[in-house]
Structures are given as structure tokens and as C-alpha cells.
Amino acid sequence: MVRQLVRDWQTTKAMDGFAKAEVKSRLIALSLNVIMRMIAGKRFCGEEEEQAGFSEEARRYWKLVEEAAPAIGVSNLADFLPVLRWVDYKGFSKKLARFHKERDELMQRLIDEHRSKSKEERVEKKSMMGVLLSLQETDPGYYTDEVIKALGTGLLGAGVGTTSETTEWMMSLLLNNPEALKKTRDEIDARVGNERLLEESDLSNLPYLQCVITETLRIYPTTPLLLPHEASQECSVGGFHIPRGTMLLVNAYAIHRDPKVWEEPTKFLPERFEGGKGEGKLMIPFGMGRRRCPGEALAMRVVGLVLGTLIQCFEWEGIGKEEVDMTTEGSGLTLGKAIPLEAMYRPRQSMLDTLKKL
Ligand code: HEM
């Protein structure tokens, strides 16, 4: 992504040396690549493709995700009034069936591609699909194509939007809070320098960057109602009687903005977490308990590495004098920015030598 930003900057920069970047789609392309490399051992969006790095297949897939998102996040009246199923209320069933079919076909193509590879090739490019297909050879009854496709779609569905949206909120918050942006950059300059790119191993040595991530996840948890849970047994929650089979939604968004717990809850203040100050306050951006997000460690590394590298390499500014819009949220199960983030950027003078070597 850094290479691509430099290349695009060279061709589109204006007199003041700044160029405009559509940040959202670049972050989606990057997150798609990270997850796809884990699942299938290959990039989804190629280097050479223009338009923020989207390949045709990735573009088709993402368009589908965006179309299906509103149908996934809303309450479907037909779940409560089954008679509405006859009329396919708001066309949800049709939309979701098409989404499922195309996503299933994509996963099947990936499985078939893997099957056609030699054993050596599969071992060399170790991926989740490769491992599962080897297991299929020893236990075909359990590791069916259906199971492999379900695991792949689960990770793609759960890992891409959440990661890119968190990074987009973080960038937006920093653009509106130049002091926090400067503090993050100063920390990177002091602890990483400018002779090499920031690496994953630097993250534990960048406490302020960690505070920025935590504060972003507090104000904008990208899965604000976690995932719907269901009471497997009759129980009581907060004094309410919950019959078995009831859907239970946890409002992490409200918990994170509770004025009884957080001072000025809507204010972006990474300092509130400095020196372990936030400890003991309930934060559940990744849920909790047995069904807590299994991608948390990966997500924290990816967002830290991406945000840290973007700040290390480039100067960033908002477009015009207006602040980045922080109030218009998209619809769906995850909390995305409805207005895609765009920003002005140029390579930092002190990083030019390092960027030339990429
Ligand atoms: C900033 C990024 C992310 C956030 C905020 C996030 C948040 C969440 C939340 C709130 C849940 C539901 C937990 C519950 O219901 O109690 C969840 C579940 C899940 N997440 Fe994440 N997630 C992120 C990234 C990822 C990544 C990168 C992956 C995979 C590569 C992933 C895979 C999953 C899966 C598979 C589940 C379902 C777990 C289950 O039902 O047992 N997530 N995530």
C-alpha cells in the first residue's frame, strides 16, 4: 500500500506537493489481502491493478458484501412474523441467497485451485485451505468442502470490514485531532526512526499508538452490538427473565460511552489509557467469554502496523478546512463510516531515502 501511495502521489501531486487519497478502498484492499493470504496463500488484490489495488474478482466480491450488508444488520420482521416469509419482506431472502451463492462459488474456486496444486507447492505456501485439504485426505467425512468453505467465508466476513473500518476511524480521528497525530508521529520518530519501515516487533514499544487504537475501539467499536447471542437455557440477565432460545444483543457501543464510567465519553482522548489508567473499566470491542473474537491478536497487529506505517511515511491532512465527518454511520452489522474517508498526503521529507528503496 505504501508503494502504491508513493506511485500515485508521483503522478497526481499538486503544486503544494500534496495528492488526494481515497483511504477507505485502500484499507479494504489491504485487509482483503491479509485475510486472503491467510486463507488461500495468495493476494486477492494485485499490485499491478489500478484503482487502489482492487482486482476484478476482489471488486466483485466487495460489491456483493456492500449490497448484502444492510440485509445482515437489520432486524428482519419475518423472523418474528413468519407469515411475512411468503412475501420475502424487503427482498432480504433473495438478496442473501444471491450473496451466499456467489460467495460459495468464490470459495469453491479457491478450493479447486488448491486441489490442482502439487503437494510440494501446498506445503511451501502454507495456508489455511492447504492445511484443511490435507486433513480432508485423512478425514474426508469431517473436513468436507462445505466445512472448509464455511471457515473461509467466516474469516473473510468477520475479518475484513472490521479491520479496515477500525483503521479508517483511527485515521479520521487523528486528522481531526492534529495534536494526537503529532504525538503519535513523534513517538514513532523517536523509537523507530526513519531509516527503515516500522515493523510488527516495534508495536510493543509504541505505547501512545496503542492508546490511540484502544481509544478508537472504545468510541467506534466496529461490531457495536457484538454478534447476536442466543440463550441456550432459561436464565436471568440484569433481573430480566430470559426464556430459552431468546436472542440477546450486547450493546458494546453504549457500554463504551457510559458517562458514569468515562469522563467526557464522546471525546477522543487516547491519554485516558496512558500508564494503564483505563484498566478495570469494561471494554468489549472484541466481545468476551468463549465466543470472544478469535481474530483479536491479528487485528491489533494489522491496525497498529498499518496506521503506524502510514503516519511514519506520510504527512496527512484533511480535505479543505472542514473536519472529517464523524457522525454519519453506515448501516449493517458493523459500524462503518458512511462517507468514505479521503485525505491529502505527501511523503515525509525524512522518509524519502527509505521510500526510494521500497
Ligand atoms: C478490529 C477488528 C475486529 C473487531 C472489532 C472484531 C470484533 C468481533 C466481535 C465483537 C465479535 C463477536 C464476539 C461476541 O459475540 O461475543 C467477533 C467475532 C468473531 N471474529 Fe472478530 N473482530 C475483529 C477482527 C477479526 C479478524 C481479523 C478475524 C479473523 C481473521 C475475526 C474473526 C472473528 C470470528 C471468526 C468471530 C466469530 C467467533 C465465534 O462466534 O465463535 N475478527 N469479532
- The count of β-strands is 7
What is the end-to-end distance?
A: 11 Å
Bound molecules: protoporphyrin IX containing FE
Assigned CATH superfamily = Cytochrome P450
Mean pLDDT over all positions: 90
The radius of gyration over CA amounts to 22 Å
Number of helices: 13
Structural domain count: 1
Just give the CATH class.
Mainly Alpha
Strand residues, percent: 5-15%
Architecture, according to CATH?
A: Orthogonal Bundle
Order of the strands making up the biggest sheet: 1-7-6
Q: Indicate the percent of residues in helices.
A: 40-55%
Look at the helices and sheets and give the structural class.
mainly alpha
Q: In the CATH scheme, what's the topology name?
A: Cytochrome p450
- What is the overall shape? globular
| Low-pLDDT stretches | none
Write down the secondary-structure element order.
HEHHHHHHHHHEEEEHHEEH
Largest sheet: 3 strands, antiparallel
SSE topology:
Blueprint: H1 2-12, E1 19-22, H2 23-40, H3 56-73, H4 77-80, H5 92-115, H6 119-124, H7 128-138, H8 145-176, H9 178-191, H10 207-219, E2 229-230, E3 235-237, E4 240-242, E5 247-248, H11 252-256, H12 296-313, E6 314-317, E7 342-347, H13 352-356
Antiparallel strand pairs: 1-7, 2-5, 3-4, 6-7
Helix pairs in contact: 2-8, 3-5, 5-8, 8-10, 8-12
The structure holds protoporphyrin IX containing FE.
Protoporphyrin IX containing FE is lined by residues 35, 154-155, 158-159, 162-163, 166, 222-223, 226-227, 285-287, 291-295, 298-299.
